[in-house]
Amino acid sequence: MKSNVYIHKSNITDFLLKLTLMLLIPFALFGIYKSGYRIYHHGYGNLFTILKPILYVMIALIISFVNSRITKKKFISSGLLSNILISLVIMPEANFFLAVGLMILVNVIVHFIKINPVALYMVILILISMILKNYSFLNIFEKEIDHVYILMDYLLGLGYGGISNTLLIMSIISFITLLCIREYKKEIPLLAFIVYYALLLVKLIFTHDLTSSFFINNNLIFAFIFIAPLSRFTPYSKGGCYIYGVFLGALTFALSFINLDLGVYLSILLLSIVAGKIDKFII
Amino acid sequence: MRELIKLNKNYKYNLNPELVIHLDPDYVYIPIKKNYNLLVKSKDLVLKEQIIMENNLNKIISPISGIAKEIKMRNISGAEVPCLVIENDFKEKTKIVRKKAKVDCAEALISKLYEYYFKYIASVLETHKINNLVINGIEDEPYIFNNPFILNNYCKEILEMADMIADYFNIHKTIVAIKASDTSNVNKCLSIIGTYPNIKLSLVDDKYLLGNSYFLRENLGLEELDTLVLSAKELLDMYNAIKYDRYITETFITISGPCLEESKVIKVKIGTLFKDIIDENVKITSPNVKYILNGLMTGSSCDISDTIVSSSVKGLIIILDEKCPEEDCNNCGLCYKICPVKVNPKKVMDTGKVSSNCLDCGLCTYMCPNHINLRKYLRGENEE
Questions:
Q1: Judgement on whether residues B130 and B53 belong to the same structural domain of the protein
Q2: Residue-range domains of chain A with CATH
Q3: Is residue B10 less than 8 Å (CB to CB) from chain A?
Q4: In the structure, what pLDDT confidence band is assigned to residue B165 with cuts at 50, 70 and 90?
Q5: Which domain holds residue B48?
Q6: Is the pLDDT of residue B373 over 70?
Q7: Residue-averaged pLDDT of chain B
Q8: Cβ–Cβ of B10/A11 closer than 8 Å?
Q9: Which residues of chain A does B324 touch, with a Cβ-Cβ cutoff of 8 Å?
Q10: Which positions in chain B touch A6 (Cβ < 8 Å)?
């Protein structure tokens, strides 16, 4: 006699996964324009430049496919989502081979350690870039020309950020859409945003520092919405998610004094390591 | 109040609206329980309702008349137990003299309930001041139809019994609880309930666990201490004991599922082998099937060739034998969020510490998007 349950609820987390993947399509398409065609159009790149954003996505798909074959698991899985997210947040001017090699390496590492792969990838990439002194989230075109962005520019995706994660308007639409899904761990991004911006406001009162990159940072917004709530690397209890969100906001703010882009990914990485401990503390 | 959910019921089935009778098995198997003295030996003639085992507290009676045979191992609710085999002579001979003593007061009713092994109900009625009596006509398990079916077929008897209890024990409120979606029973009850002005009909949502006494009481807004919830089956058994001096020798089981030409509710003798019931009463349409004892949410797969019907068996669901691979936990927390008694299945899975609060309702496993068999961990079966 084997006890089990022989009927199952329609897979809502599968729906959430597919919805998230769908929401990422506009980002990838816009990445081709912003980090590909636009640069090429202004004479700063070649055909490879146009194809680079989509090439990253293609490589993410191939790695996920191979991974699913090796592990005999479903192709459309959290692993695929992680790889797609990685392909969107890579620094625009990162070394292509380094970026791809690192993607493969992270896919191997997460088989052995339960850790947020996107955050791990970005922390390693940023650190290597810093060591190699080519750290920047600006593409070659943005580096050459001084820009002053207004809010509309940010909304339309012209702000700085990863290769395909700058479409702020889509981030907002995605967030609103995901908030409607019960299984999306909305407590994490909501509290992270509240805590981060509250602390930023306090800082503003004391320092009068109006640096726009602290207020509208595509890496931060995209990471809070898509990367931080990745289910497998976050607490499963509601209380745990609250703590995770609060700490994420606070830690990101604290680390922003060193480097905001590194800070947001490092915060997610550190919290994903202790996610299980948070649950144990709460329950 | 807890948030309960409606289950997905994707299987198609064709339910026979008539109650099927299967009261003439060739053999019955009576489990020999620990600390019971076996009062018959091989080749003895056994009469129907004859005491064949007893201890200081309980007696076990034979559901048929026939010849006692050998002792065989059989499966009852997951455990292999030795069973006394009785070969049916189909004569239903009994020594019991039907007394036809009139039960006309609370004391007489309690005494009768004790005599016919309704000890728990008798003790509750004896020791508590009951103000609310709930007739539970709900079956929680999907594709199991016993209680609604019994209520539909024996509505008059059940209401009469409930009315008698309410009358003798001065119970202020008597409620028949049925699912709002159970239109057949709604119509049936409405047509009869007028005869019993003190009995009211209450329609509840089609949500899982409302068939459980605790959740039903909570849903109806009734207090635990002064409410007695009795299932349609219990009331029918009580009616048969009080009116006709009948011991419980028969029960109702549902045989259903998508792999059957027709799903049925069958009245059977306790101790009948499932294989005999299936061979005679249902037609399986697929070759590759598995048998789930007691339902898809709280049941277990079983081998029908050695599983027998006991008084606690609700039925057998026959489904296709498909593999449903488990994947790694993705920390979604749905198992913990859905648990009606706030047990943490993930923690039990990780630590191996079984929680005594678990109802074994199966909701955590039902919700799990990765099809992890959390019931196995919660029941402490993970080491098997």
A1: no
A2: 12-282 (1.10.3430)
A3: yes
A4: very high
A5: 25-89
A6: yes
A7: 90
A8: no
A9: 8
A10: 292, 296-297, 299, 317, 319
Question: Is the same domain home to B225 and B134?
Answer: yes
Is residue B265 in a domain?
A: no
Q: Which of B289, B331, B343, B384 to mutate to test the interface with A (most CBs of A within 10 A)?
A: B331
Structurally, how many domains does chain B consist of?
3
Instruction: Determine, for residues A12 and B293 on separate chains, whether the beta-carbon distance falls below 8 Å.
Output: no
Give me the residue from A3, A8, A238 closest to B371, CB to CB: A8
What's the predicted TM-score (pTM) here?
Answer: 0.86
Residues B150 and B115 in one domain: yes
Nearest to A13 among B301, B332, B375 (CB): B332
Residue in this structure with the two tokens 């859409």, named with its chain if needed:
A177
B157 found inside a domain? yes
Q: How far does the CA of residue A279 sit from the closest CA of chain B (Å)?
A: 9
Structural domain ending residue among the three candidates B244, B270, B305: B244
Report the pLDDT value the prediction gives residue B41, as an integer from 0 to 100: 87
CATH number for position B54: 2.40.50
